[in-house]
Design goal:
Elements lengths: L1 H39 L6 H4 L1 H9 L262 H15 L1
C-alpha cells in the first residue's frame, strides 16, 4: 500500500505545478489580448452573430478568448545567376619556320630550238598547187522582216512544290536486329608431348670477407591515448515568440492574362518571271558546194583618158603653081582631111 501511495502523490504534485504554470501563462496572454483589442477593435468572424449572448456574458465576467497567430512563409520565385565556366578556343597566329637551303636553286624552263636532221630524202613536188579559200558574200533573198508571236496562256499555271508528310507503314511490333557478342571456342593445336620450362630456385653463395654487425630494430613501449569523457554542447531547438503588432498582408505575384497580337497572313500578289522561247534571226554562213575552183571576175573601175576634139590653129602655106608641089599639096590636104 505504501508503494502505491507514493507515486500517486508524485503525480498529483506534478499536475498541480503544471496547472499553476498554465494558469499564469493564460493570465498573461489574456492581458495582452485585452490591450490589443482595446487599441485595434478587431472583429472575429462569426463571433458576434452566433455567440453574441455568450460574448456579452464573458465580457461581464472578464473572460477573454485565446487567439493564436500562425505565420506562413510563401515562397516567391526569384532569378539566380549562376556562373558556369566554359572553354573558349582562341586562334593565335604563330610563325612557322620552314627550313630551306640558302641560296637555293631555281629551275626555269627556257624553250630552245633544236634542229632535227632527216637522214633519208623527202620528195617535194615543185611547183605544187595551193588552194586558197576566198570568202565571198552570198545573198539570201528575204521578203521583209516579219514579227514572231509567242503564245503565252493567260493566266498561266505556276507549279509550286508544297512539302507534305509521307506516312511510311511500320509493322508493330517490328523486329530489331541487335548484335550480341558471344564467345567462339576453337582448338589450338599443341604438340604432345611438349616441353615445359620450370624455374627452380637454388641458393647462390656469395663470398663475404668477414661477418659484420647488422642493426635490428627492437620493440619499444608506445603510449596509447585512452578515451576520456568530454562535455559536448547539444543545441536543442525551441520556439521563440516574437511580438507582432498585427497581421500584415504579403503581396504574392499571381499570373494574369496578357493579350498578344498575332499577325494574320493576308493574300498578296507574287510576280514570278516565266522563261519563254523567243525566235531570233541569226545570220550564219551558208557553204555552197563547188565542184572545182573557178575564176571570179569582178568589175574594177579605173580612170580612162578620153580624147575630146578641140580647135587647133595650123599655119597654112600659100600654094604655088608647081606640079610637084600640087601633088604634095593634094596629099597633104587629103591627110588633113583624114
Amino acid at each position: 500500500m505504501r508503494m502505491i501511495i507514493v507515486p500517486c502523490c508524485l503525480a498529483l504534485f506534478v499536475a498541480l505545478v503544471t496547472c499553476e504554470g498554465t494558469a499564469a501563462e493564460d493570465k498573461k496572454a489574456e492581458e495582452t489580448e485585452v490591450e490589443a483589442k482595446e487599441s485595434q477593435n478587431v472583429e472575429k468572424r462569426g463571433l458576434h452573430g452566433s455567440f453574441g449572448d455568450w460574448h456579452d456574458y464573458g465580457d461581464h465576467h472578464h473572460e477573454h478568448i485565446k487567439t493564436v497567430t500562425i505565420e506562413k512563409k510563401v515562397p516567391v520565385p526569384y532569378t539566380v545567376e549562376k556562373h558556369v565556366p566554359y572553354t573558349v578556343e582562341k586562334k593565335v597566329p604563330y610563325e612557322v619556320k620552314v627550313p630551306y637551303p640558302q641560296p637555293y636553286v631555281v629551275e626555269k624552263k627556257v624553250p630552245v630550238t633544236v634542229k632535227e636532221y632527216v637522214k633519208y630524202p623527202v620528195h617535194v613536188p615543185a611547183p605544187y598547187t595551193v588552194e586558197k579559200k576566198v570568202p565571198y558574200e552570198v545573198k539570201v533573198p528575204v521578203d521583209k522582216p516579219y514579227e514572231v508571236k509567242v503564245h503565252v496562256p493567260q493566266p498561266y499555271t505556276v507549279e509550286k512544290k508544297v512539302p507534305y508528310e509521307v506516312k511510311v507503314p511500320v509493322p508493330v511490333p517490328y523486329t530489331v536486329e541487335k548484335k550480341v557478342p558471344y564467345e567462339v571456342k576453337y582448338e589450338v593445336p599443341v604438340p604432345k608431348p611438349y616441353t615445359v620450362i620450370k624455374k627452380v630456385p637454388y641458393e647462390v653463395k656469395v663470398p663475404v670477407d668477414k661477418p659484420y654487425k647488422v642493426e635490428v630494430e627492437k620493440p619499444y613501449p608506445v603510449e596509447v591515448p585512452k578515451p576520456y569523457p568530454v562535455v559536448v554542447e547539444k543545441k536543442v531547438p525551441y520556439e521563440v515568440k516574437v511580438p507582432v503588432d498585427k497581421p500584415y498582408k504579403v503581396e504574392v505575384p499571381k499570373p494574369y492574362k496578357v493579350e498578344i497580337k498575332v499577325p494574320v497572313p493576308a493574300p498578296y500578289t507574287v510576280e514570278k518571271k516565266v522563261p519563254y522561247t523567243v525566235e531570233k534571226a541569226v545570220p550564219y554562213e551558208v557553204k555552197v558546194p563547188i565542184d572545182r575552183p573557178y575564176p571570179v571576175y569582178k568589175e574594177i573601175k579605173f580612170p580612162v583618158h578620153k580624147e575630146v576634139p578641140y580647135p587647133v590653129k595650123v599655119p597654112v602655106h600659100v600654094p604655088v603653081h608647081v606640079h610637084k608641089e600640087e601633088h604634095h599639096d593634094h596629099s597633104y590636104e587629103h591627110h588633113d582631111f583624114h
